[in-house]
Design a protein that fits this description.
Strand content: 15-25%
Number of helices: 9
Strand order of the largest sheet: 3-7-6-9-5-15
Radius of gyration: 23 Å
Distance between the termini: 79 Å
Number of strands: 17
Oligomer: single chain
Helix content: 10-25%
Shape: globular
Order of helices and strands: HEEEHEHHEHEEEEEHEEEEHHEHEE
């Protein structure tokens, strides 16, 4: 008996060291750059506010977010919501699941490998709301829709749902994709009325500044002293879906955050190829993919690659920077060749001083 006790005394420091490294009730501090995938945290290298954080946006809630609490419940909200008018703004990624897998995950029990086998697209949107707060208000309080991420003007990323959920953001892509709404007032043809003059003002030195109008409420930016500026001063003109459109660029802060998030997603989900849809000559495709192309495509894409009636993220997005920088962060080769042409480079972000 004495011998046994002596052996325990020798082993106790080893055993207790494993048990007491995280004492009950100890606080596990996060870095603030984590995204949530199937209940697990993954670092992104850029600020992320989760739906469970103070100031976050929670798409798991069934009530409206921006009305008095007494009027926010779902039954009271139903007359104010667009289709599909269901309490939840999300659903299960069920398209590729076996009956056994569906039964296992229907209560939320996704394992990472199963989720990784079901997600192979990352869809980029502009929100035409200007700021992420308004974007969430439109989705949650009016449209009965959702998106996994929102990217605000100062580069802050908001995650509203675990990526195991099928968010409602891009119709036929929802089941296999992750979606992000980037704060930007959108792109317009010459025939359309647009709000750009309200949101963008040229200063005396010729530099462009983003001005949040009073009706949008106070600036929600988390970066102290932040002044929003499009990366390039002038309107960017380009063709999407066969129509010439004009758009102000995204902010440099948004580009840097988007590149880091893209690298993170392409790493966590290996089936998302870090590239964008290309024509035969290697250039960016600026129209909807055909049914066969969409079925076979796995990578980063715009909303306009999914639906012919959409033009987001517009002609201003610097795709080569986003993909090139993401590939650099992933330690991937800076370029590859298609039909003998170099189609992926690591260009610098185009920013006007």
């Amino acid at each position: 008996m004495i011998l046994k006790c002596r052996h325990f005394a020798l082993l106790a420091p080893i055993l207790l060291a494993g048990c007491l490294c995280h004492p009950p009730g100890s606080h596990e501090k996060r870095k603030g750059d984590e995204i949530v995938v199937a209940g697990q945290f993954f670092h992104s290298g850029t600020p992320v506010v989760l739906w469970m954080d103070p100031g976050g946006y929670d798409a798991y809630r069934v009530e409206r977010r921006f009305v008095p609490y007494t009027n926010a419940d779902y039954e009271t909200s139903r007359p104010f919501l667009d289709a599909p008018r269901t309490p939840n703004r999300y659903s299960i990624r069920d398209a590729k699941l076996t009956p056994e897998q569906l039964e296992r995950v229907r209560g939320g029990g996704w394992d990472l490998p199963t989720l990784q086998s079901n997600v192979d697209q990352f869809v980029l949107h502009f929100d035409v709301a200007g700021i992420s707060r308004t974007c969430f208000k439109v989705l949650q309080d009016s449209r009965d829709l959702s998106v996994h991420f929102m990217l605000d003007l100062d580069g802050t990323i908001y995650q509203t749902l675990d990526l195991k959920e099928r968010a409602r953001h891009a119709t036929i892509a929802n089941n296999r994709s992750v979606g992000i709404e980037i704060a930007n007032m959108g792109s317009y043809s010459a025939r359309e009325r647009n709000p750009l003059a309200t949101w963008y003002k040229k200063q005396a030195d010729g530099r462009m500044i983003i001005t949040i109008p009073p009706q949008a409420g106070p600036s929600p930016e988390r970066t102290a002293g932040f002044v929003g500026r499009p990366a390039r001063r002038e309107l960017i003109v380009g063709e999407v879906q066969g129509t010439q459109l004009s758009q102000y660029d995204f902010t440099p802060q948004q580009y840097r955050a988007l590149a880091k998030l893209t690298a993170t997603l392409c790493t966590v989900f290996p089936r998302i190829t870090c590239d964008y849809p290309r024509e035969a000559d290697g250039k960016l495709m600026t129209h909807k993919l055909s049914a066969d192309q969409f079925k076979d495509y796995h990578g980063v894409m715009g909303h306009y690659h999914v639906q012919s009636n959409k033009v987001d993220p517009g002609p201003a997005l610097q795709w080569d920077y986003v993909i090139g920088e993401a590939r650099r962060l992933m330690n991937l080769p800076p370029q590859r060749t298609v039909h003998g042409m170099t189609v992926i480079r690591r260009p610098k972000l185009k920013v006007d001083d």
